[in-house]
Amino acid sequence: LGISLLASCGGKQPQIDRKTETGVEVIQNHLAPYAIKGEPTDFRLEEELTIDFAGPAIGEMGLANATDFMVDAKGFIYFMHVWKEGDTIFKFGPDGRFLKSWGRKGQGPGELQFMIGACLTRSGQLIVSDHTNLKLIWFTDEGKLIKELRYPPDGSFDIIYPVGDNRFVGYARAWTEP
């Protein structure tokens, strides 16, 4: 009896606590990571590349205060700089070498006032949300303007965040009278 009790209690993998709330799967995070047989429970960061924003070449571009970055499937790195005058999107190669910039400050086609979010699509396009001009802008990975769309004209959204291929998250305020 004791051996069968030990055999049934020993070696079990912890169960993952999952539940569905209003159609969304929720997974309970525990303090200690689950140990999955044959899989590591921790990871190491290894330096692959360094881009020195304090160095003279990049420092002259004014990128010291970049506000966001993304890396595409080919390893190209895109930095965004909301507060910078001139170009606001910068592309670096997988080796960290500066390649080009685009997205000038302004209100015209392909120009940006205040980037609030950006994403890369599977096809390599960069979608940027311009909060001040209330528009979404599509660029090729080389910075060529593809199209622009204004936020819905009914004023229902304050901000629209691009999150993937033809998927967006909108933020709106609901005002009620007291």
* Number of alpha- plus pi-helical segments: 2
Strand order of the largest sheet: 3-4-5-6
Helix content: under 10%
Low-confidence stretches: none
Give Rg in angstroms: 23 Å
End-to-end Cα distance: 69 Å
The largest sheet, given as strand count, sense and whether it forms a barrel, is: 4 strands, antiparallel
Looking at this protein, list some descriptive labels.
four-stranded antiparallel β-sheet, 2 helices, mainly beta, 178 residues
Gist of the model:
With 178 residues, the chain is mainly β.
Q: Strands, helices and their partners?
A:
Elements: H1 2-9, E1 18-21, E2 24-27, H2 56-59, E3 68-71, E4 77-80, E5 87-92, E6 98-104, E7 115-120, E8 126-130, E9 135-139, E10 145-150, E11 159-164, E12 167-171
Antiparallel strand pairs: 1-2, 3-4, 4-5, 5-6, 7-8, 8-9, 9-10, 11-12
Walk me through what this model shows:
The chain has helices spanning 2-9, 56-59, and strands at residues 18-21, 24-27, 68-71, 77-80, 87-92, 98-104, 115-120, 126-130, 135-139, 145-150, 159-164, 167-171. It starts with a helix and ends in a 7-residue tail after the last strand. With 178 residues, it is mainly β. The strands form 4 sheets. A 4-stranded antiparallel sheet has the order 3-4-5-6, with no helix packed on it. Helix content is 7%, strand content 35%. The chain contains 2 helices and 12 strands; from the N terminus they run H-E-E-H-E-E-E-E-E-E-E-E-E-E. The protein is globular and about 55 Å long.
